[in-house]
Amino acid sequence: MKFKNAKRIEGLDSNVWIEFTKLAADPSVVNLGQGLPDISPPSYVKEVLSKVALMDSLNQYTRG
């Protein structure tokens, strides 16, 4: 290998997404954490999501 990773990132080859992907590989598991649905959600779900989206305190981002 021509390039080597910096020592400061050694041991970081595992993270939550790698673990989720491994778990989701089981055919009996429905992985709702990745990908895009190919069906429209029910009306009651869209109604609740629209109310939640109007709240200023919620977002998908973590603290820096």
From TrEMBL:
A GO-annotated cellular component: mitochondrion
The name under which this protein is listed is cysteine-S-conjugate beta-lyase
- Could you tell me which SUPFAM superfamilies the record lists for this protein? PLP-dependent transferases (SSF53383)
What InterPro entries is this protein classified in?
Kynurenine-oxoglutarate_AT, PyrdxlP-dep_Trfase, PyrdxlP-dep_Trfase_small
Origin species: Sciurus vulgaris (Eurasian red squirrel)
Q: What is its EC number?
A: 4.4.1.13
User: Care to name a GO molecular-function term for this sequence?
Assistant: cysteine-S-conjugate beta-lyase activity
Q: Which UniProt keywords apply?
A: Aminotransferase, Lyase, Pyridoxal phosphate, Transferase
Output the superkingdom of the source species.
Eukaryota
The entry describes its oligomerization and partners as: Homodimer.
Q: Which is a GO BP term held by this UniProt record?
A: kynurenine metabolic process
Query: Which metal ions or organic cofactors does this protein require, according to UniProt?
Result: pyridoxal 5'-phosphate
Q: What class of enzyme is it?
A: lyase
Family, as annotated: Belongs to the class-I pyridoxal-phosphate-dependent aminotransferase family.
